[in-house]
Design brief:
Blueprint: H1 4-29, H2 46-53, H3 63-79
Length: 88
């Protein structure tokens, strides 16, 4: 039988992977996501190096994906906040 911690870990991994799969399927149906494999260059450009020196990072993620990722991040962050009970 699985312990409580390993079960929680399994649930988090499952929910995360299914959430990304559903988000990808929806984006594909809406025509916003394209399946492609583009190898990245490991050599830095002058422009990328200049941005790095200024403390800015370019993750080069598509905007719809970043919206979903940030929404999930904010939901996880909100789940850590303990709200007072609602008085009736």
């Amino acid at each position: 039988m699985a312990s409580g911690d390993s079960l929680r870990t399994w649930v988090m991994k499952s929910l995360t992977s299914y959430s990304f799969a559903v988000a990808n399927a929806i984006l594909e149906k809406m025509g916003l996501a394209k399946d492609s494999f583009v190898p990245t260059s490991k050599v830095t450009d002058d422009e990328v190096d200049k941005l790095y020196q200024m403390g800015k990072y370019d993750f080069q993620a598509p905007p719809p994906f970043m919206v979903i990722l940030c929404s999930i991040y904010m939901l996880n962050l909100a789940s850590l906040v303990k709200f007072p009970p609602i008085l009736t």
